[in-house]
């Protein structure tokens, strides 16, 4: 669900920026490629780049029930992992003014739409990874780190700072629906009860 969520956000933001006259300039890519000298670095030229920064487990949801009743049998599963994602949107446009406009429009878009569901979101369902995606809901919130954290983030990505903004996506479930065990349910009690006081 991590790739799917970021791909949906990429498609949604790209449509918004295209409608605003900036073109189809959004890519989902590792920003560290920018100053790496890698051949793929040219894919980031004059683009708005969405990059995953961090995955954080939502520890408050660790103790969710792991069994379900199906046809009078209890089925046991390993619990899904609930995570929050932190992603950065960076504008690597040829003109600095276009980078600022792109970031401004990004903030504008996510201010207008914070909740993404299967019902309110149009996405490319023909994408192979999206075909198994059924019902989803996640919330996107602006995340503002301090200057020291920003410095560490850009140091990790090569040092050159671009106009950018960080968002937190909550809450995604990651897991496979693999049955670990199943048992019959106790539905009746047979026998006679005796009064222990007599």
UniProtKB/TrEMBL annotation:
InterPro entries referenced in this protein's UniProt entry, alphabetically: Pvc16_N
**In which domain of life is the source organism classified?**
Bacteria
User: Residues in domain Pvc16 N-terminal?
Assistant: 7-187
Protein name, UniProt field: DUF4255 domain-containing protein
Q: What is the lineage of its organism?
A: Bacteria, Pseudomonadati, Bacteroidota, Bacteroidia, Marinilabiliales
